[in-house]
Amino acid sequence: MRPPPNRTKLRVPETLRLSVSAISQAENRVHRPPKLTPRSFFGRNGLLAAAHPNYEYREGQLQMAEAVASALEERQHLIVEAGTGTGKTLAYLIPSILSGKRVVISTGTKNLQEQLYLKDVPFVQSLFEQPLSVCYMKGRANYLCRQKVYDAEREPMLAGLDEINDFRIIREWEKSTETGDRSELREMAETSTAWWKLDARSDLCSGQKCKQFERCFITEMHRRALQSNIIIVNHHLFFADLAVRDQAFNAILPEYSAVIFDEAHEIEDVAGQYFGMTVSNLQIQELVKDTAAISRRKLFATPELDRNLIQITDRAEEFFRLFPQEGRQSFSDHDRFLGQHEETYREILFVLDALCTRLELIEGVVDETLPLVRRARTIQQGLRFFMQSGDATYVYWTERRGRGMYLQTTPIDVSQVLAANLFGRVETVVLTSATLAVAGQFDYALGRLGLEHARTLRVESPYDYQKQVVLYVPPHLPDPRRADFTRRAAHEIEQVIQASSGRAFVLFTSYHQMRQTYELLRDRLEYPLLIQGSAPRTALIEAFRETKGAVLFGTSSFWQGVDVQGEQLSCVIIDRLPFAVPTDPIVAARSEAVRQNGGNAFYDYQIPQAALALKQGFGRLIRGTADRGVLVLLDNRIKRLPYGRVFFDSLPPYRFTDKLGDVQEFFDV
Ligand code: SF4
Q1: 523: burial class by Cβ within 10 Å (0-12, 13-18, 19+)?
Q2: Rounded distance between C-alpha atoms, residue 59 and residue 484, angstroms
Q3: Can you give the pLDDT at residue 311?
Q4: Residue whose CA is closest, atom 2 of ligand 1?
Q5: What structural domains does the chain harbor?
Q6: Residue 208 alpha carbon, nearest atom of ligand 1
Q7: Residue 380, Cα to own-chain centre: how many angstroms?
Q8: HEC secondary structure over 312-325
Q9: All residues at 6 or more sequence positions from 177 whose CB lies less than 8 Å from its CB, including other chains
């Protein structure tokens, strides 16, 4: 075994820079570290123990690392449920590096991606002598378009003082940044409209024809990826790439041998988005706006072109008004719709076609017109697929979100898509999360994702849940479907929060329920109350961390990816078993598909899905060995009805009580 590395190497951003320069010298060569095994790192006296004074040996972490290493070596697929606190990130990152293969690591969010790259990779780098070749890739909107910056200097594109101010910051930064990644611009507001006008989205990109192509940050990102062994992406980027991988020129990621999905419980939904299609009125408005602006800047505006754009705006307004203007609705009666509105539908296709023809005839500005034509064609294609494809393997639905009206198609069953495009094509796929098994079994996740031949592993959390957690289910509350539930649940929440001295998340399955309960409690609780929607999510979490005794009311977006360690979060209250809304178009179509295949939609789909969601929500509470607290489920169907067993069998072994006095006693200790 090698001697422990020099600890001074733990300061790391430099090592990352080192790795980038080493990569560019090495071009496509892969760095293969000397023969080390997972045990060399995760064993009782391994490199991690030597490198980190607080490192605790965890049997489960070693088990997982060995399972990942052999899956990579033997070209097998693997699914691992790793309980909270296992240290799963290092358990897949280190074996990936040791494999010497090109491995894509896909995380649930951009934040997790950054955490992995800026925190875990530097730490692992400190354990290796030679520079690791690691890079990250994000979606194009995260990067700056140099060409747009230069255009903006010459042509009027920006409006208002804020935009001009942000532009100055961006222009200076463009001269020195190596990545063009906007996360480096911490001083600029998330909502900057200047950024939105200058980012590298493909909408206006002329690709290889662009004068800046060689210096482009997107080109640079691709170059780095080509030279890296480990590529860190997020699920959205991964599936955006997978959906277009057949068309080689569209591919985003270079060839890879393996992919590891962290937060793998999310991939069914994300894959559904990218193997489906979306068309919206906003896309059309953007196209019209960009065409008008560019035609003026590049001097190809004509009265005919302007008329064409006005027609597109009018026809689109008329067309999108024909759909339900509230929430998510399924759209199944295409024949009836076309019977009544075929003319309006054909007209929007026609005026988009006219725009393409007109733009294609303009000479000398093809760099500008080509991306516009491509966008108009994509919109037409989406409209045709939505209205005319008749493909019964998709669910068709509409959604109104703010000013946007979206027409969407989603595969009903992503398992076949994933079996063909992912599991059948990539030699090793590792799926990991703290929530993949239902009642100890992986059948549900494997079936939903279409993964047939996979090794499985469950690694228990190192936390002592019997000592650290009490799960309280009040037996006296009415069924949550009854009208008096909200009022009585609010009273129960009040008592629990008094016992916990605030320090609680109160999580709801619906926005409406959250608001109603909040209104009932806002004057009765003396603790600082935070509610979803009153500020951005990250600001609310930050405020919760910093405000003594705070209570946060939230819905599904707070059920996962939120990490508050320590006693500031001592209680998580959930209003009801988190069954998906049965009338939601995707849930309804997937339930129907289960029935048609001879299954029982409630037992085979809705219960497992809700059991995983509950495990996810409760997982917010204990994030360290010193954490302790109370979980409260206000829905006592978990005790009263036979299916409640599945939920209990899926949760960690919490200490259970149905007495409020035990909650008080727990907090008094
Ligand atoms: S290649 Fe595209 S993204 Fe890159 S600078 Fe040119 S226009 Fe912008």
Answers
A1: exposed
A2: 48
A3: 97
A4: 205
A5: 144-199 (no CATH), 277-411 (1.10.275.40), 465-668 (3.40.50.300)
A6: 1
A7: 28
A8: HHHHHHHHHCCCCC
A9: 144, 184, 217
Q: Does the Cβ of 202 fall within 6 Å of ligand 1?
A: no
In DSSP notation, 371-418 reads HHHHHHHHHHHHHHHHHH---TTEEEEEEEETTEEEEEEEES-HHHHH
- Which of 281, 283, 314, 309 has its CA nearest to residue 296? 309
Token output for 354: 């006219």
CB-ligand 1 contact for 218 (6 Å cutoff): yes
Classify residue 541 as exposed, middle or buried by CB count within 10 Å of its CB (0-12, 13-18, 19+).
buried
Quick one: which atom of ligand 1 is closest to the CA of 204? 7
150 CB under 6 A from ligand 1?
no
DSSP structure string for 44-74: TTSHHHHH-TT----HHHHHHHHHHHHHHHH
- pLDDT > 60? residue 26: no
- Cα 92 from Cα 87, distance rounded (Å): 9
Pairwise CA distance, residues 664 & 216, whole Å: 60
Q: What is the mean pLDDT of residues 612-628?
A: 90
Buried b vs exposed e over 547-569: b needs ≥16 C-beta within 10 Å?
A: bebbbbbbbbebbbbbebeeebb
Do residues 231 and 102 make contact, with C-beta atoms less than 8 angstroms apart? yes
Q: What is the mean pLDDT of the chain?
A: 90
Q: What is the mean pLDDT of residues 207-236?
A: 95
Ligand 1 centroid–CA 368 distance in Å is 11
State how far the Cα of 195 lies from the Cα of 193, in Å rounded to an integer: 5
Q: For residue 139, what are its two tokens?
A: 């979606």
Chain mean position to CA 258: 20
CB 650 within 8 A of CB 615: yes
Locus of tokens 């482009």: 216
Q: Which atom of ligand 1 is nearest to the CA of 210?
A: 6
Q: Which amino acid is at 640?
A: R
Q: Which two tokens stand for residue 478?
A: 């009415």
% of the chain residues with pLDDT over 70? 94
